[in-house]
Amino acid sequence: MSTRREFLTMASGGAVALSARRKLFDIAQLPGRPANTISGSQDRDFSNVLVIAAHPGDAFFAMGAPVAVASHVKGEGYFLSLSMGERGSPTVPAQQYGYSQQQAAQKAATALGAKALFLHYPDGEIPVNDEAKFAVCDMIRQCRPSTIVTHWKGSWHKDHRACYEIVQDAIFYAGLPAIVRKETAHTVRKLYFASNWEDSVGFAADTYLDITSVCDDWLNACSVFPMWLGENGFRYKDYYSSMAVADGCISDFKRAVALMSSEDQRIRNIPTPTNLENAPKVGQPAMPSARPSRSA
Question: Domain of 228?
Fold first, then answer.
């Protein structure tokens, strides 16, 4: 890549930037890049967020920031872990480690003003079956989220791939009134896949969420997990805190997280303009944008 301008154009062209603040602010356009697209519905999208992850560490490290945003806008946030990740330590017995993971998740959720929920499937053996899908369906109906954040399917980790498949059908089941469960049907407005170092195959971010105002709270919540500092062999703190800076650079926020929307959410309906009188003719350049630009 020869220039910074070309890199920014490639890295963030067409992506949506979402501000976590209550009021939108105008973001200056970075040079050499299409103007930022800022969604006006981010308060509603992130007013009630349910994270569904294979393990507590994934829930908080890769997906916790959107829940912190929900709390920041006086909404509701939930962390659902399908397994305790009890087999994740090379030195601590599984039962003891699973208990410490659950305790850390509850403490971290409380710090973020959220709730921690658990389904207790065996670590490494999360089943992809209707029992698991309906269990998650029931959690969705109970929490009634506007947005779900979960794993992307492009993972080397078996449990992460299982979680992805379970969530797809659980959302479908949750939205069907004809499926009678304890809670009434609920339709999820948005589904996002989180940026996770273990789920990187085919992951392509198309949405950047501003987490500047909640970044410290999120990172502090993650720090209650002993594995956050790398005791299991991976430097989670360094990775995710650095990615918040890097994604912020890409999106022109101070701190951000990258998300990937589900395929059905990428469909755009563009109506025919009703007033073609002032539209530029073919080959004629469009009128310059009123948005100010910054010098490189």
Answer: 4-25+32-266
